[in-house]
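Researcher: Re-running this chain for the archive, since the previous output was lost when a drive failed. Same request as before.
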Amino acid sequence: MKHLFTIDLKNYGADWKRSRRDSARAIIHVGDDKLAIVYATKLGYYKFPGGGIHEGEDKIAALAREVQEEVGLVLVPESVREFGVASRYQKSGLAENTVFIQDNFYYECDVEHDENGNLKIISQNLDAYEDEAGFELRIVSIKEAALANRQYRDTNDFNIAMIARDARVLEMMAGVKSEPSRCMAELLLEEGVKKNPGPWREHSYAVARAAEKIARAVNQNCSEDKMNPDLAYVYGLLHDIGRQEGHTYIAHVYDGYHFLLSFGYEKAAQICLTHSFNLQITDDYIGKVDISDVQMEEIKSLLAAAVYDDYDRLIQILDATCGADGTLNLEDRMNDVKARYGYYPQGKWDKNFELKAYFEKLAGREYYEIISPQ
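Model: Regenerated structure tokens:
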């Protein structure tokens, strides 16, 4: 079966035990752009009907059983067609020092209809978790389900990764770019900070909060939704995620880009790259070059190909403004960098003030007034 993608939180040790539980999941089309899908009524997310494959059970038998149990539909076995497999790796929520591993096998399939052409619905058979979540059958557009999952909020790490998995499949089907939800972004950041604790956590949250405020101010001033405040927050939160790999310099740009790209989060990955280069060149990078020549050439090529938009620009100016210590002053932050490294390129300095003025014009308000914590 074609491999679709891997969601790997990388929040486990190399020597940890492995716990595998593969699953079969159904893509049941209703018309051109709708699905028969599970809706968790008490929590507010969508998931494809399906679940764990029992020992000794083949995938299609598991698929038929899960479809009936979760949504009360009857699978037509001869209609089953392979769609693809999505892999998932994360720290187990049930056992210490254990990695949860799961290959999720997605199949497009048909279900039985009654004599009037309506879906033939029999009784569900929900387990305790499914009943508590309020699983029920919904007919919904692919884009609507994808959007609901992106907007979903949770604090349960296991649920967050599961919903992100199905959200990405939905986004692939809808032909829209994958974006992390707020709770997925927060999970990735917090797991990263556990690997490399440091002030970058506070800095990331400061940038995220300020980015959301500016996006809202821009929309209010322009009387239209020019920026998505949730995406601004997410991009701000994850721009430094490469720092989870340790105390690095330009390597954090490279590592962050490839980490988020592995999830399919292309724009968030780009901002890991572009936040350090407001002039779209590497010559003015402040800090050590702690990557190989090949990796540096890759960064240069990616920068040359990148098309900067207001999200790239927003995170650039806020990265230069927001300190982990609560500082929210562009010139103070740049002078601090200059004191620590001995220089601050004039072109980069001037560009930051140009970006400050740019967002003040877009928002119709003074920059510091917008991002102030009050």
